[in-house]
Amino acid sequence: MTDTERPRRVVGLTGTRADFGKMRDVYLGLQGAPGIEFSLVVTGMHLLHRYGYTLREIERAGLRHLHHVPNQVEDEPMALVLANSINSIARLLLSEAADMVLVHGDRVEALAGALAGSLTNTRVAHIEGGEVSGTIDDAIRHSLSKHAHVHFVANEHARARLLQLGEEADRVLVVGSPEADALAVAAESDLAPVRAHYGTPAPPYGVLALHPVTTELELNRRHAEAVVDGVLAAGGSWVVIDPNNDEGTHDVRAALERLDGQPDVVRLPSMRFPAYLTLVRHAEVVVGNSSSGVREAPVLGTPSVDVGSRQTDRSPAASVRHVPAVAAEVTGAIRAARAAGRSRPEEHFGSVGAAGRIVEAVCGDDVWTLGLQKRFVDRPLAEGV
């Protein structure tokens, strides 16, 4: 960059406690990078007090230039959340004269950021595209990918899916997942500070993390009740993490309230992501339909019970037991997981150091030479398709 050139303006976006935990080091790296002027849109669950008002966590991390963008009231339909988010984020990108918007994963806020960027001719960089999410999240992730100009993916499987979607090969960079960095730390972390801060029980304990399924709204209450029945029948100590803010969360919360006041049950609205990973690392089992049960838990060697359809086809890990939302099957799977004990850690996210590789790429020139006008690449179909 010459003395007369202004810094490249990069706007990140975070909507949940989980995505910020994965992306924190990327954001901090860009904030301190030469030639980059970084700011962060804080929206979604971060600004809702019921979910712990985790904006404070972002401020404590040392991120300085924050845009607070409220986009919802509790249990608002996702379509309205998307509309609210696009409106606010598009105006912000234009007012900031942003050069790039950096989004992660498969949440509706990320989709809003990609749509706003694409439609304002702001370069869109997507982290962890090309993966399988399950339910509506799958459609969100792949839709987002079609609006992204550059993809930072976790592995070759993800790259292959993006090529199958017609993306140009030079736009897809295999860097690993920033989550690998956090998992490496969690694998060696002491549980004592987490117990002291959150009041969680000593091992052995299980973690219950259950979210609404937005494509099965009429079934959420019944399925959540079955999971609670299964957990109660299995007994033992539990840490219960409240559900996310997707449509239908009220029904899941209503079922989880039956666990309030139960002996050896601690219910938390939210946890810092590193603390949650440490909790999972030391748990005897993770139960529910959170992505942490099928992604993070196997990497940390913790067995899990995945209930229902939310994470369908998302994990090949042998340590994950998939069951329907039937109380007896949930109980049986919990007991089997306890009997089997810890598993050998599995690798899904590539090598440690993804955050640094993403920051290096954004600070370099190659991703900025990719045109804003994309083309669809037709590739031969497999025989018999």
UniProtKB/TrEMBL annotation:
GO terms for biological process: UDP-N-acetylglucosamine metabolic process. NCBIfam families: NeuC_NnaA. Pfam families: Epimerase_2. GO terms for molecular function: hydrolase activity, hydrolyzing O-glycosyl compounds. Residues 30-361 form the UDP-N-acetylglucosamine 2-epimerase domain. This is UDP-N-acetylglucosamine 2-epimerase (Hydrolysing). Residues 297-319 are annotated as: Disordered. PANTHER family: UDP-N-ACETYLGLUCOSAMINE 2-EPIMERASE.
